[in-house]
Design a protein that fits this description.
The chain contains 18 helices and 27 strands. By secondary structure, it is of the alpha/beta class. The longest helix is centred in the last third of the chain and has 19 residues.
Amino acid sequence: MSCAIPAHRLGTAWSRRYRDTGAWPGVALGDAFARTTQRRDGATALLEDDVALSYADLASRVASFAAGLARHGVGPGDAVAYQLPNWWEAAVTLLATVSLGAHAVPIVPILRGREVSVILRQTRPRAIVLPQRFRGTDFLERLREVLAGMADVDPLLVVARAGAPPSGPHAKRFEDVAAAASESFTPRAVDPDTLAVVIYTSGSTADPKGAMHSHHTLGAELASLVDAHGLGDADRVLMPSPLTHVSGVVHGILAPALLGTSVVLQDRWDPAAALAAVERHRVTYMIGAPTFLQEMLAQPTLGAHDLSSLRLFSCGGASVAPELMRLGRTRIPHLVTKRSYGSSEFPTIATTGVEDALARGLDTEGRALRGVELRVTDDAGAPLAAGAEGEIRARGPDCFLGYVDAALDADAFDADGFFRTGDLGVVDADGYLRITGRVKDIIVRKGEKISAREVEDLLLEHPAIVEAALIPLADPATGERACACVRLAGDASPLALDALVAFLRARDLTPQKLPEQIELVDEFPRTPSGKINKRLLRESVERRLAALATKGS
């Protein structure tokens, strides 16, 4: 397969409009980073443990590593993959790669052999950057096992923080590749229409899908964040989300490079350490999965920290319960909590502005960003009126331009170029979007479709429930029955089904939507992006029920 953006995606009327109106800024990411470095120079760009890099420091390391990659044959059109923790080397790798006219392929560190082999076969990287060891795993040995079954993929392995030089002819230390003086690197002229980053989705039901972003689409995304979150030079983000995930790429690497913000990297999520980092480094905002905010708010030391710098927490990447948004505002009164809606394919589709987050940030995902068009459609793709529920489709300058596997594009885009998100939602008369579920995340009980998201939001209002997922289980009488899987707070008493049903009845939930089974879960299986993996969850519950049935027979 070829990692090239389809020409027909660049020549449409709407893509021409993005160029003509300036929605596609016409600047390659490497050039934008150079401009930011000139403007910010000695200001801090990145903090990781005891490492503090100014913009000048970061630019020097990027230039050195780019020169090293070029000496090893990396050039325009090539892929450079990286499977790194939240280390500064990840930022340097991405920025060096795009400055060469090559494209970066971030791989989430928790992915194993099957998923990694799919990604490598599709992208055929010229180089792969990885740690020697991390969290007890020998990444180099594991990757060599994957490559052993792929005779046609033979990349240079660049090992970060390796200690001794790694053995083998195709492996070198990161610092050895970057040993040349930065002056030896001459930045290339890069067409902003070319491929910059391939971000792989973390789907729970199929192989990962590579979403192709150009310099234009990512530049448009970063420009939109100035309006969406009020970002500027004074902002500093705490980044526990992987720098291999879309939110980490955008806010942990590209926002500092293009907007002049700064980032504090956290390579292992720890809510207590996160609170300390906010206080120590005067973090101003966070973007990430709702579990980050939830666990920070639950820390007994929350009130002991000076969090006065933290002005914004925008939740996305998973179902965001209104109750969590309320709790954030209650426990950190000056904090603006709100929701953002996007994906690997379309990083930010909608959010509330900081000014209207208090009014509409609890119950909606906000309004479409500047330049983004939203449609809610019926099953046939016909637009629906305001207030009607249907599939959400979106088109805009920061939408990806196709999958690496081009066969997937036909189902991903409609005839008008709108991306089919697979989400169900409602747009009200004022343009505010509310997600109601997934097109496929439903329980069909006696022919009636029940949205899991609606019930999950109500479950999370229960004071004993920390996390919840509603899944379908086969039922001979109704076709499917709704099973509420819940994780309780540590000090909570066991929760019975009748008590849970009574709680939901009190919130006027339609009787047909009431769960018919409850499963108490100590820990949910998750996708690489932190979402609850409902496929694995359902399989686990089904195995347990089958074992019980066998034991009882």
